[in-house]
Amino acid sequence: MSLKKHPNADNTYETERLILRPMSAEDRDFIFELYNRPKFIQHIGNRNVNTAEDAEKYILNRFAPQIERLGYGNYLLITKDNNEKVGAVGIFEREGLDVVDIGYSLLEEFEGKGYAFEAAQKVKSIGMDEFGLSKISAIISKDNLSSQKLIEKLGLKFMKYVTLPGETEELNYYETE
């Protein structure tokens, strides 16, 4: 099946301190590292990215098709000052949710600097202003208090608890009003 490339699929965005560009196969080593961090596995889950090759397949099979089809998806976060890859942020279609979901993750050494909020705020704006999304949701594990605070700061409100198909963990579900 051939997907028609969305005209905005190559968009790179900037915030005060970050460059956000669509995730690509060349980011495989970074995704491998990020997705295997204990905090990522604890709060987001094990994505079975066990090698750099698995990471590349994950990018090509999960991230690339959505961004090519819709124009938005998962973005790599790169600092402007040091050109360091620090994390990822995106808006995702997720099985079991009727509203697209915003998500983010950072390497622990870059947490607490405001990068996640800065990037999530930009991606929320892109989704709503450029792509006309009327609502954005977020799902967060019950013990991830810092993410819950960030999502509320973004203007999303807790609505209910959800369990995604094929999962057992009940998650907090937030949505824009």
TrEMBL record:
GO molecular function: acyltransferase activity, transferring groups other than amino-acyl groups
Keyword Transferase listed: yes
Keywords: Transferase
InterPro entries linked: Acyl_CoA_acyltransferase (IPR016181), GNAT_dom (IPR000182), N-acetyltransferase (IPR051531)
Domain N-acetyltransferase: 18-177
Domain of life: Bacteria
Full protein name: N-acetyltransferase
